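Note to self: the last two entries modelled the partners one at a time, which told us nothing about the interface. This time every component goes in together.
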Amino acid sequence: MIVVASTNGSVGIQEAVRVLREGGTAVAAVEAGIRLVEANPDDHTVGYGGYPNILGEVELDASIMNGRTLETGAVGAVKGYAHPISIARAVMERLPHVMLVGDGAARFATEMGFTQQDLLTEEARHIWAARLKQDMPAETFANLAQEITLADWVRLATDPERAKGTVNFIAQDMHGDIACGVSTSGWAWKYPGRLGDTPIIGAGNYADNRYGAAACTGMGEMAIRAATAHSIVIYMKMGMSLAEACTEAMVDLRALNGRFISVMHLIALDKDGSPAGFSSIRNKTYIYQTADMAEPVEAVRTFVPIAARWG
Ligand code: ASP
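The predicted structure of the combined assembly is written out below.
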């Protein structure tokens, strides 16, 4: 039994391991771990306290996948609920669909009894307003909702100082079943309605008991374009080791042409319970904990460079 997570999952990994030790499923462990990250107001990239879109609205994305059944659930651009991972799990377990977005996702969350909540903290609101006012005339800022040139202003989302991040959790339970979950508030100051890789199964999240699982953080558009998480699992199916599969997926990202090439970070697990982390930035870490370890280990991700290219 093991839980692997992005390093910001440290607030939830012990809880996920506890669920596994008590005989819980990989799906339950992933959800339990991610919920604690979503509730953490100090994490500006996930759940409550996440940075908003350009209009100042917190829009959350999440997905979960059960590697035993290949069932999955996802929500995108959902507003007003702090735990999109739980809504995603409910989509997987209660609906014949795999993905809900926007108003429909919020309606379903209400129907499932999830609590509605204002997710924009005073701190996040202050940082959003200060950042936008640095570049925008006061009049544009005051009338943002009616602004007809948001597509131009969304360049602020490419601010190198913006918060980047997402939380990834992969768990393998006592039956050997694997599950993978991902949750994010996406890019700070993004265009309203923008979805990244997090809710897109095969891009930011994929799990298949027969081979393993993978999840991404970083520039979601790249992981969508290269189908990164699914590629890692397929490369293992084709006989590559976990390290070879992750390296090959990073090489695929490097081969993307055109604009908007930035950073990517992966975590992965093979079917035998071995973890891995990869990143296009040096010295990035990930964490993992097996059921017989008292504490999680923080390990350095394997570095595979990807040259950034924006405009
Ligand atoms: N992957 C996330 C997204 O594109 C953001 C991140 O991890 O930095 O929404």
